[in-house]
C-alpha cells in the first residue's frame, strides 16, 4: 500500500493504482473528470487530457515536482506523492482550455441529441467550460456513415476517445471499425462501408461519452429525463442479463447496461437484451435504478413517487386497479 | 576548415558500394568492437564521447543506451529513426543516400553494444529511392559477412531490416514509430513506460536518429577522448546542418559544434551570406519546430555574447530570447519574407500532421491554422493575435507527445518577436494582401 496526498486529502491505495483511481477512492468534488478513460477497457485513457493534474511532489524518495501536468488516468501513484487538482489554478485553467478544444468543432446540437441529459461532454462543459466561445471559424463536419440498423454513428459529435475501438477489440470477436484519417479529420469509420454486426456490438453505444453512437431503436423516441430507469434482469444465455430499462409509462423505451457513478459499464450486455426485449414482461424488475451522477435524472428525485409510499398516499381504488398489472408498486406498501 | 567525421569521404566515387567504402576505412569499428571490446565498453565509449542525440532533443546517446532494461529471456531492439520529415531538415537523407554503409556500420556496432539481435531502420516512406540504396547496401553487407550469423567469427549475429513508413510526420516520434513498425496506426504511446523498458513488441528498445548512429563508428574507431576534443563544453563533436532558405549556398554542412552563427551564415565556407545581397530578417535554427529568432537575437544572445552553433548557446535565454539547435534544420529568411505567411505555412503543416489522438493538439492546430489564414488574407482582427498566443499556450505541454509543443512554439515565437508585423496585417489588410507586399518597420512607423 502507498500513501498519497490528493488536494490535501491523504489516501492509501494499492501500489500501481492510477492517480485518478486514488482520487475516486476519496470521491466527491476532487475527482478529476475523465472523457476517454474507462476502467473496464484496458489501454484506454491519456487522450482527452481532461484529467490533467499537477504532481507537486513525485514521491517521498524524489520529492521533485513533475515538470508538466500529467494525465491522472494513466499515471501510477508513488508513495508520498502530492497531487493538486482543484487546488491548483493552472490545472483548472488548462481544463478550461481542454473543454474549449473539445467544443470548438462540436456541433452543440444538444437540443436534438439523444445523449443530452446523460452526456459526459455536456457535464464536463457545464462544470469546467465557459459560456461563450472564441471560435469564429467554420465547424468541421463529417459525411454520415451507415454502420447498420441498430447503431447510429454521428461522427460530427465524436471526441475521439477511442472507447468504442477498445470495446470492439476487447469484448467482441472482430473489430470492423476504427479510426481513419488523422488530426481533426480523424474519424470513426469502417473504411469500406460495413455493418458493425456481432452479439455485443451495442456496447459501443454505452461506452460513448457523447452522442456520436446512439441506439437506433431509441433515436428521437424520448428525452432521457422523461424516462425512468429501472434495474431489471432476465435469464440470458449470452450475457449476465442485468440491465437498466428506461421506461416511460409501461413502455420500455430502451435498454442499457448498468453503469456506476462514473458512467462506466459494470457488466456488458448482449444485443438481444439491448435491442430485442422491449416488452416489460420479458424482464424481472428489481426496482428503480439510482443514478448518482452523469445524468440529469439524478436531479429529479423521480424515485420518490415510485417507491416511497407516503408521497402518494391513499390512491383511489380505481388507480390501484389500473396499476395492478404493471411493474410499479405505486401507492402500495412495499 | 572544420574536421569532417561523417562526410570526409562522401564525394569519393563509388563510396556507396561495399568495396570502395571498405577501402576508405569502412567497417573498422565493427572489427574493433566485435574482436577487442565488450558491449559495455562500447556503451562506455559512447557515453564518454558526450555524443548527444542528433534527432532534435539532444539527449545524450550513451546515457539513453545505459537506460536500456535487460530482462532475462526478452530480446532487445535497436531502431534507427530515419523518418526525417521536419520541414527544413534534410541531413539524414543526404547521409543515407551518399553513405549507406556508414549507417549500416553504425547499426552493427550499436546493436552489438546494446545486445540487439534484430535491428530496424524505419525510413520515411517518401524516401523510397533511399530505401533501395540501403537495401542494396545491406545485401552487400550480408554477402561480406558483416550481417547475418556469426559476424566475423565473433559469435555475434545480427539481422537488419529496412522498413518504410506510410508518410506521416508523427511517425518520427519514437513511440509512434514503434507502433507503426508493429503494423499499427502511428499514434504516440503514453509514457511512461518508455521504450527503454517497453518498446518494440513490448521489449526494451533504443530508438536513435540516423546521424547519432552514423557517428558511433568514428567514436569507436578513434576513441571517445578524440571525439570529445571537438566542440565546446557539453556540445561535443560535429553536427550536420541542413542549411536552407534565402542563402547563397544551401546544402548540408558538417560543422564542428561551436562555430559562431554569424560565421556559419556569412562565411563562404558555409552558407555564403544572404542571397541577392539582401539583409537577413530571421532564422529558424533547428528545424521548423523550434522558435524563430530575429536577426539581432540569432547573431548575439540577449546578453550581447556571440551566439555559437551549440546546444547551450542557441538555447541561451530560454524561449524568451533563445531557441534550440534541434535537428539542425537551419532556415534563413531574408528581409522580403512575410513572417505571417511563413507562420501560417508551418501551422498548416502541423495541422495536417497532427495524429488526432489527444484533444489539445487535434483541435488546436486546426484552430491556429485557420486564424493565421484569416490574418494572412486580410480578415484578421487585433484580438486574433492574443487568441493565437492563448491557443498555443493551451496546447503546449498538455499533449501526449511533443508534436503539440512543436506546433505551438513556432506560432508563439513568431508573435513574440514579430508582433508588429501581425498587427500591420490586421491594420492594413489591403496593403498586406497586395501581391509581393512585405512589411517593413519604417512603413509601420509611417502608418
TrEMBL record, chain A:
The keyword Metal-binding applies. Residues 1-89 form the 2Fe-2S ferredoxin-type domain. This is 2Fe-2S iron-sulfur cluster-binding protein. SMART domains: NADH-G_4Fe-4S_3. Pfam families: Fer2_4, Fer4_Nqo3, NADH-G_4Fe-4S_3. PROSITE patterns: 2FE2S_FER_2, 4FE4S_HC3. It comes from Rufibacter roseus. Keywords: 4Fe-4S, Iron, Iron-sulfur, Metal-binding. It comes from the Bacteria. Gene3D superfamilies: 3.10.20.740, 3.30.70.20. Residues 90-129 form the 4Fe-4S His(Cys)3-ligated-type domain. InterPro entries: 2Fe-2S_ferredoxin-like_sf (IPR036010), 2Fe-2S_ferredoxin-type (IPR001041), NADH_UbQ_OxRdtase_ferredoxin (IPR054351), NADH_UbQ_OxRdtase_Gsu_4Fe4S-bd (IPR019574), Prok_molybdopt-oxidoreductase (IPR050123). Signal peptide: none annotated.
TrEMBL record, chain B:
Its cofactor is FMN; [4Fe-4S] cluster. GO terms for molecular function: NADH dehydrogenase (quinone) (non-electrogenic) activity. Residues 340-385 form the NADH-ubiquinone oxidoreductase 51kDa subunit iron-sulphur binding domain. Keywords: 4Fe-4S, Flavoprotein, FMN, Iron, Iron-sulfur, Metal-binding, NAD, Oxidoreductase, Quinone, Translocase. Belongs to the complex I 51 kDa subunit family. Its EC number is 7.1.1.-. PROSITE patterns: COMPLEX1_51K_2. InterPro entries: ComplexI_51kDa_subunit, NADH-UbQ_OxRdtase_51kDa_CS, NADH-UbQ_OxRdtase_suF, Nuo51_FMN-bd, Nuo51_FMN-bd_sf, Nuop51_4Fe4S-bd, Nuop51_4Fe4S-bd_sf. This is NADH-quinone oxidoreductase subunit F. NDH-1 shuttles electrons from NADH, via FMN and iron-sulfur (Fe-S) centers, to quinones in the respiratory chain. It catalyses: a quinone + NADH + 5 H(+)(in) = a quinol + NAD(+) + 4 H(+)(out). It holds the Pfam family Complex1_51K. The gene is nuoF.
Amino acid at each position: 500500500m502507498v500513501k498519497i496526498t490528493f488536494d490535501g486529502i491523504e489516501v492509501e491505495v494499492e501500489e500501481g493504482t492510477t492517480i485518478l483511481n486514488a482520487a475516486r477512492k476519496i470521491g466527491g468534488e476532487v475527482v478529476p473528470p475523465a472523457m476517454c478513460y474507462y476502467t473496464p477497457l484496458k489501454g484506454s485513457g491519456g487522450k482527452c487530457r481532461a484529467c490533467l493534474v499537477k504532481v507537486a511532489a513525485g514521491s517521498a524518495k524524489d520529492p521533485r515536482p513533475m515538470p508538466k501536468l500529467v494525465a491522472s488516468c494513466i499515471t501510477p501513484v508513488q508513495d508520498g506523492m502530492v497531487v493538486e487538482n482543484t487546488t491548483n489554478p493552472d490545472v483548472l485553467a488548462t481544463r478550461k482550455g481542454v473543454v474549449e478544444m473539445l467544443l470548438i468543432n462540436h456541433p452543440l446540437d444538444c437540443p436534438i441529441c439523444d445523449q443530452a441529459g446523460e452526456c459526459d461532454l455536456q457535464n464536463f462543459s457545464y462544470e469546467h467550460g465557459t459560456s461563450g466561445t472564441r471560435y469564429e471559424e467554420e465547424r468541421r463536419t463529417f459525411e454520415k456513415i451507415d454502420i447498420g440498423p441498430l447503431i447510429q454513428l454521428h461522427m460530427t459529435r465524436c471526441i475521439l476517445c477511442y472507447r468504442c475501438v477498445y470495446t470492439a477489440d476487447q469484448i467482441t470477436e472482430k473489430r470492423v471499425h476504427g479510426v481513419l484519417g488523422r488530426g481533426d479529420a480523424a474519424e470513426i469509420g469502417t473504411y469500406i462501408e460495413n455493418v458493425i454486426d456481432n452479439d455485443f456490438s451495442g456496447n459501443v453505444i454505452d461506452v460513448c461519452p457523447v452522442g456520436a453512437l446512439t441506439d437506433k431503436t431509441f433515436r428521437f423516441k424520448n428525452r432521457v429525463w422523461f424516462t425512468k430507469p429501472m434495474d431489471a434482469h432476465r435469464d440470458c444465455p449470452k450475457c449476465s442479463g442485468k440491465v437498466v430499462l428506461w421506461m416511460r409509462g409501461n413502455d420500455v423505451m430502451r435498454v442499457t447496461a448498468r453503469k456506476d457513478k462514473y458512467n462506466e459499464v459494470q457488466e456488458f450486455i448482449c444485443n438481444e437484451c439491448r435491442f430485442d426485449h422491449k416488452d416489460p414482461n420479458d424482464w424481472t424488475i428489481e426496482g428503480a435504478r439510482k443514478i448518482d451522477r452523469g445524468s440529469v435524472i439524478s436531479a429529479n428525485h423521480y424515485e420518490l413517487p415510485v417507491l416511497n409510499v407516503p408521497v402518494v398516499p391513499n390512491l383511489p381504488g380505481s388507480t390501484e386497479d389500473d396499476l395492478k398489472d404493471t411493474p410499479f408498486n405505486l401507492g402500495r406498501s412495499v | 576548415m572544420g574536421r569532417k567525421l561523417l562526410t570526409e569521404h562522401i564525394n569519393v566515387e563509388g563510396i556507396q558500394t561495399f568495396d570502395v567504402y571498405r577501402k576508405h576505412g569502412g567497417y573498422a569499428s565493427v572489427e574493433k568492437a566485435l574482436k577487442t571490446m565488450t558491449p559495455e565498453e562500447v556503451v562506455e565509449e559512447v557515453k564518454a564521447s558526450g555524443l548527444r542525440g542528433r534527432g532534435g532533443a539532444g539527449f545524450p546517446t550513451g546515457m539513453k543506451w545505459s537506460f536500456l532494461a535487460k530482462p532475462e529471456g526478452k530480446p532487445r531492439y535497436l531502431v534507427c529513426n530515419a523518418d526525417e520529415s521536419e520541414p527544413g531538415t534534410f541531413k539524414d537523407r543526404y547521409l543515407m543516400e551518399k553513405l549507406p554503409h556508414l549507417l549500416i556500420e553504425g547499426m552493427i556496432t550499436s546493436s552489438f553494444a546494446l545486445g540487439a539481435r534484430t535491428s530496424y531502420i524505419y525510413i520515411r516512406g517518401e524516401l523510397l529511392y533511399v530505401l533501395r540504396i540501403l537495401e542494396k547496401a545491406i545485401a552487400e553487407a550480408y554477402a561480406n559477412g558483416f550481417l547475418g550469423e556469426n559476424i566475423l567469427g565473433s559469435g555475434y549475429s545480427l539481422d537488419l531490416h529496412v522498413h518504410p513508413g506510410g508518410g506521416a510526420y508523427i511517425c518520427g516520434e519514437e513511440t509512434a514509430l514503434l507502433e507503426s513498425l508493429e503494423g499499427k496506426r502511428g499514434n504516440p504511446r503514453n509514457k511512461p513506460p518508455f521504450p527503454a523498458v517497453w518498446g518494440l513488441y513490448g521489449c526494451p528498445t533504443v530508438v536513435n536518429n540516423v546521424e547519432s548512429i552514423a557517428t558511433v563508428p568514428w567514436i569507436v574507431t578513434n576513441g571517445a577522448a578524440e571525439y570529445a576534443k571537438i566542440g565546446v563544453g557539453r556540445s561535443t563533436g560535429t553536427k550536420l546542418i541542413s542549411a536552407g532558405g534565402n542563402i547563397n549556398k544551401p546544402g548540408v554542412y558538417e560543422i564542428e559544434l561551436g562555430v559562431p552563427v554569424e560565421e556559419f551564415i556569412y562565411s563562404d565556407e558555409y552558407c555564403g551570406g544572404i542571397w541577392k545581397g539582401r539583409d537577413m530578417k530571421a532564422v529558424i535554427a533547428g528545424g521548423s519546430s523550434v522558435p524563430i529568432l530575429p536577426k539581432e537575437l540569432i547573431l548575439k544572445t540577449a546578453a550581447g555574447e556571440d551566439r555559437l552553433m551549440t546546444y547551450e548557446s542557441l538555447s541561451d535565454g530560454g524561449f524568451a530570447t533563445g531557441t534550440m539547435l534541434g535537428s539542425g534544420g537551419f532556415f534563413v529568411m531574408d528581409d522580403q519574407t512575410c513572417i505571417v505567411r511563413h507562420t501560417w505555412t508551418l501551422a498548416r503543416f502541423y495541422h495536417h500532421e497532427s495524429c488526432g489522438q489527444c484533444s489539445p493538439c487535434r483541435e488546436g492546430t486546426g484552430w491556429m491554422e485557420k486564424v493565421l489564414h484569416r490574418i494572412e488574407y486580410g480578415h484578421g482582427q487585433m484580438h486574433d493575435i492574443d487568441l493565437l498566443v492563448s491557443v498555443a499556450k493551451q496546447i503546449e505541454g498538455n499533449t501526449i507527445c511533443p508534436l503539440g509543443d512543436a506546433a505551438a512554439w513556432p506560432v508563439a515565437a513568431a508573435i513574440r518577436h514579430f508582433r508588429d508585423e501581425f498587427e500591420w496585417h490586421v491594420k492594413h489588410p489591403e496593403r498586406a494582401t497586395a501581391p509581393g507586399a512585405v512589411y517593413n518597420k519604417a512603413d509601420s512607423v509611417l502608418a
